[in-house]
Design brief:
The protein contains 14 helices and 23 strands. The protein has 484 residues and is an alpha+beta fold. It folds into two domains: 221 residues, Outer Surface Protein A, domain 3 (Alpha-Beta Complex); 232 residues, NADH Oxidase (3-Layer(aba) Sandwich). The protein binds flavin mononucleotide.
Length: 484
């Protein structure tokens, strides 16, 4: 079919799409993983859609073709089916100038809703929920609310993004890009509107996106990237670095510094004397006030042993599908990766110099990593601030993820898994602290730069992702005991 000089929408069937008419008014489109049947099509629409098997076609030519076959062809239906096929990843959309695609769009989710007939009157602006990045040397804009990705194949059109940072009407956009063909700019704007990368704004400056203003861009991006169905990227255990990089070991190398062995509890005695699970669950609560008693080394040893020690390390064994070392600990962890390292800030634990310590879960041992009072003070002050300005905790546990433990295996969901692991470990800590009648409280904020200063860890390699405050209880117990 003919290709226009400029076309806002050219449609190209993806390589693996097979088109077949299977009835007088039914067209079947088969992709590798599914098939779609378009039913009750009039002859013109059916012929126009089937024609896509022969090669790329401009939307306007398809409309002309449909009407030439059947003067009563339903052109609205044609647009709807084209948009639907694009959103189901059977078609790619491009904007074309002089026979060359200058913009290309694909659906990133089956929830994408393309509009081949967008109203381009009024003020237009880049969607607030869009992210620009570079892929294979091409500028790419992902419209997260529209579930589409647009590749800027012609670098000259990159200026559109700057122009569309502010709401403008079409003449305003054309005026902001002097030296560009105004008709090409109009076609590109139509394309970006139809793919959802730009949105129309009303007189108050609202695009309708304000209804999502509680959602922050990085949160929306992480959610889409880490769930199947909202991204066309691979999500899951893909082992994409296998063969290229060695997996990080199950256990972190012990930092340099003096070591302090921790006492171990008698687990057999605890099995006999512990409070029941129901009692612990029913009386668990967050406590942010502490009694005068310090947390002893024995309590610290018992708490860490119950919650976080490493029971076993299973070495790599490819014959059983174990491609990286995993370990076994009292709490669960995504992929058995146990990416979380524990660091304890202890200002006044009897028997230990004030400092921040790394916990070695295999040796059940603390290593002093920082004794600078100013840094320790900041860690503890931040913890107090997180509780709304209550007491500084006698024990501050910082949970730090060794990111590569997860990202070597997982694609898309590595960071999301680290945060889920934090939640799991928080709860294990709550339960152990409650069983031991200590005062536990998870903390939602902490300063990753202070953690980096204290430990020397590069935040891109290992960084704090959670904090937990612990102390002894005030004499009233601060606890609703189910037996009271
Ligand atoms: C992920 C998470 C983050 C939390 N962050 C804080 C925090 O920053 N400051 C705080 O005082 N409590 C924090 N908490 C404790 C909650 O406020 C507490 O669990 C909630 O109010 C319910 O009370 P309860 O734990 O006593 O049942 C956090 C809890 C969780 C699970």
């Amino acid at each position: 079919m003919n290709v226009g000089v400029r076309s806002a929408f050219r449609l190209t069937a993806v390589d693996q799409a097979a088109f077949q008419q299977i009835g007088p008014d039914v067209l079947e489109i088969r992709l590798t993983d599914r098939r779609m049947r378009l039913k009750r099509l009039d002859k013109g629409v059916l012929c126009a859609l089937a024609g896509l098997a022969a090669g790329p076609a401009d939307r306007d030519r398809l409309r002309e073709y449909a009407r030439s076959v059947d003067p009563a062809a339903d052109l609205r239906r044609l647009d709807q089916e084209l948009a639907r096929l694009a959103s189901r990843s059977a078609l790619e959309l491009s904007c074309v100038a002089n026979g060359q695609p200058v913009l290309r769009a694909v659906a990133t989710s089956r929830l994408a809703a393309f509009d081949l007939n967008p109203a381009k009157a009024g003020q237009l602006r880049l969607s607030r929920l869009s992210v620009a990045s570079v892929r294979e040397d091409v500028l790419v804009v992902e419209a997260l609310a529209a579930y589409t990705r647009v590749c800027f194949l012609d670098p000259a059109l990159g200026g559109l993004l700057t122009a569309l940072a502010t709401a403008r009407d079409l003449p305003g956009i054309q005026a902001a890009l002097p030296g560009h063909d105004p008709e090409l700019i109009e076609a590109a704007v139509t394309f970006l509107l139809g793919t959802g990368a730009i949105v129309a704004v009303d007189q108050s400056g609202d695009s309708g996106e304000s209804r999502h203003r509680q959602r922050e861009l990085p949160d929306v991006a992480l959610h889409a990237r880490s769930r199947q169905g909202l991204s066309d990227q691979r999500v899951g255990g893909t082992f994409r670095f296998a063969g290229e990089l060695d997996p990080a070991p199950a256990l972190r190398a012990r930092p340099d510094g003096p070591g302090f062995a921790l006492p171990k509890p008698d687990l057999d005695r605890l099995r006999r004397t512990d409070r029941s699970l129901t009692d612990v669950q029913e009386s668990r609560r967050s406590i942010r006030q502490y009694g005068p008693d310090p947390i002893t080394l024995a309590q610290l040893g018992e708490f860490l042993y119950r919650v976080a020690r490493c029971r076993t390390v299973h070495p790599v064994d490819e014959s059983i599908g174990l491609y990286y070392e995993v370990s076994d600990r009292p709490y669960p962890s995504g992929g058995g990766a146990y990416d979380l390292e524990l660091y304890l800030t202890l200002p006044s634990c009897p028997g230990l110099p004030p400092g921040m310590y790394h916990y070695a879960p295999d040796e059940h041992l603390l290593t002093l990593v920082c004794d600078r009072p100013e840094v320790l003070g900041r860690m503890l002050r931040d913890a107090s601030t997180a509780t709304g300005g209550q007491q500084e905790p006698p024990v501050l546990i910082t949970l730090a993820s060794r990111f590569a433990r997860l990202s070597w295996k997982y694609e898309g969901l590595a960071y999301a898994t680290a945060l889920k692991n934090v939640g799991v470990l928080y709860h294990a800590m709550y339960l152990a602290a409650t069983a031991m009648r200590l005062a536990p409280c998870a903390l939602g904020t902490g300063d990753a730069a202070t953690f980096s200063e204290a430990t020397g860890c590069d935040p891109l390699v290992e960084s704090s992702v959670g904090e937990f405050a612990l102390g002894s209880r005030a004499s009233d117990g601060g606890e609703r005991d189910v037996r009271d």
